What we know:
heterodimer, A: alpha/beta, 7-stranded mixed sheet, 4 helices, 7 strands, 27% strand, globular, B: alpha+beta
Amino acid sequence: MAEPPRPPYEILSEANAERALYGPAGSTPTLAGANKPPPDVSFRDASGREVYRREVKTFGGAPTTFARQFEDYAKKLDYRGELYVQVPRGTDIQRLMEAFWAKNRDDRRLARYADVYVAFHTPDGRPAGLWMLGARGMGVPG
Amino acid sequence: MGASAFLYCSCNRICWGLGKPLSEQPGGTVIRYAGNPGQPVFSQSRLPSSALWKLLADHVGHQLRVAHDWDPELHRQMESGVLPAMLDADGDLDIPLPAYLAGWPEDGFADLLSAGFDATDEGFLTCERCPERLALGRALRDRAGALLLFHAGDPGEVANSRQPELNAAAWRFLTVHFQHPLRVVAYPAGERAPADGCVTVGGGGSGGMSLAAYVAGFTG
Lengths: 142, 220
């Protein structure tokens, strides 16, 4: 059975596919491969130790969906690493983040996201903001 | 990049992140869901399996579906005004599995049957697109008629989530029918024959498919 049509904004751009491979200096990106559990990219040092982890997502939904899905992404990432997210140009990222924090009013629960960052990018690869899921209001707009 | 999969109900009360749908090759048939990091696969995990069987009982008659996170229908459902609780999540509105299962008499079939609870109906997990259904066992109802649980086999048999082949078959059904509209139904035994050509998995009837055959090679 054919999958439902995928909205164009949900397809990862070539620019972001390339940028997602940039990691800490001296590290080498290792791809999990298609259809493998997170993270999509594991950056490893010369000894093979993972020094950074990144999961790549696209998102074009509403803030309520963002809050729900990104909790789950963070959990599946074992609450460690970066979510590299492609969003349509013009997305109100502050609203997405506020929806996430509004759903997580309890700071003790929010604390489990302390090591999860969300790096937003437009389809042409431009940074659109870097935010900490686990720190209410903390982030740098793009 | 891999999309994640969510199991959700048309009633919009619940949504469950199952992790990435895994296939042997990109675009290929889904063979299992990745689940949570460091945990056994779903069919070998006690809590998620119990939760699945409770979810099937709770949502009898509703339309269930597993879909990609980008699926427009899933987004419409999530944005329809009622906020679904995320199962096995830890947000303020969400339901961790132990809380979801608290008080559910999963192992109480024999006792409740002896106490006079009704279990005359048979349950099936059906696909509304494919000619296939999974026999879930007898549907135990409380005195108000609400469905409590499904139980296959003798009354003394262990709960469905701990019957390895049946439990694996339930998880496999969700992978085989990824993105299809599913429905749990329960009606008196023998009242409705399956549609022509519909294969019944399990249940012990003639002409169906055995659970062993259905789950052969399944790793989820």
